[in-house]
Amino acid sequence: MNTTALVVTLLQVGALLHLGLFWAGLTMPKAIGLSVHLAPLPPFIRRLFYVYYTFIGLILGAFGLMTFLFAQSMAGGDPVARGLCILMAMFWSIRLLVAGFVFDVRPYLRNTFLRIGYYGLNAVFVYLVALYVFVAWKGGAL
Known about the structure:
Structural class: mainly alpha
Strand content: under 5%
Order of helices and strands: HHHHHH
Radius of gyration: 17 Å
Number of helices: 6
Number of domains: 1
Helix content: over 70%
Largest sheet: none
Distance between the termini: 13 Å
């Protein structure tokens, strides 16, 4: 397998991880009892949260789909594809920082399964940051 084919495969794995993150996002409201936490909020704020939540899900789906469909262009270093890699590297870098320094999830990590899931989630963020930084930096010069 040549280097470009390997990078395409790594990008396709990243695309599938986005789908996994999308699925994890769908399970999160039940896992943390989101409806109970949102119930006291005014209807507008509650709807605003759900709209933002939906848009984030759409972005995850779009990132995964674009990564899968355009993996060859990304690995080849096309300028727009490199720009997309930079955008996604920034998105996932910020999300990783938020996970470490903004969110306190300890009250929700009630069992081993949830703790493993949380650390696995952060491992996915690290993989995506490393992947997109690498492809943006080395794209086309592999």
